[in-house]
Specification:
This protein is of the alpha+beta class and 153 residues long. The chain has one domain: Roll (Outer membrane lipoprotein wza fold like). The chain has four helices and six strands. Strand 4 and strand 5 form a beta hairpin. The longest helix has 28 residues. It is elongated.
Length: 153
C-alpha cells in the first residue's frame, strides 16, 4: 500500500511538471494566449519568408517583431526589411518598416504582435531577378541539350 501511494505521488508530480513545461492550446479559437513555463503569457504567430528559420512560433506576449525575427535566426540577406507584412486574424494587413526602425531606433514604427498574426518577410528585387535568371538558365540548358541531341542523330 505504501509503495502504491509513493508511485502515485511520483506519477502525479511528473505529470504536473510536464504540464508546466508544455504550453497547452484549447480549441480552435481565432486568437489565443498560451500559459507557458513560469506563468509566462505566450502567443502563437506564423513567420514566413526570408528568415533563417520560418515557422510557427510561440513567443512571449511582450515580444516585438524584431525579437521574433531574431528568434528565427534573423533575416536572410535577400529580405526586404522595408516592407514586412503582418496579416491579422481579422484580415487586416499592416506594413512594418524594420529598416527605418534599425536606422532610427523608433519603436513606434513597429506594430505590437497579436495572437494568430502571420508575418511575411518578402524578398528584395535582386532575389526576384535571380530566380528569373535561374529559370532562363535552366531553359537554355534544356534547349542546348535538345539541339545537341538532334545533331547527333
Amino acid at each position: 500500500m505504501k509503495k502504491s501511494l509513493i508511485l502515485l505521488m511520483v506519477v502525479l508530480t511528473v505529470s504536473f511538471a510536464r504540464a508546466q513545461e508544455i504550453p497547452v492550446q484549447y480549441g480552435d479559437r481565432p486568437a489565443q494566449y498560451i500559459l507557458g513555463g513560469n506563468d509566462m503569457l505566450l502567443i502563437t504567430v506564423n513567420l514566413w519568408g526570408h528568415v533563417q528559420r520560418p515557422g510557427i512560433y510561440s513567443v512571449p506576449s511582450n515580444y516585438g517583431l524584431v525579437d521574433l525575427m531574431s528568434s528565427a535566426g534573423g533575416p536572410l540577406q535577400s529580405a526586404r526589411l522595408s516592407d514586412i507584412r503582418i496579416v491579422r486574424k481579422n484580415q487586416q494587413v499592416i506594413v512594418a518598416d524594420v529598416e527605418s526602425y534599425i536606422k532610427t531606433g523608433d519603436s513606434s514604427l513597429l506594430p505590437i504582435l497579436q495572437p494568430g498574426d502571420t508575418i511575411i518577410v518578402s524578398g528584395n528585387i535582386t532575389d526576384v531577378i535571380t530566380k528569373i535568371l535561374s529559370v532562363l538558365r535552366d531553359i537554355a540548358i534544356i534547349a542546348n541539350v535538345i539541339i545537341i541531341a538532334s545533331r547527333v542523330n
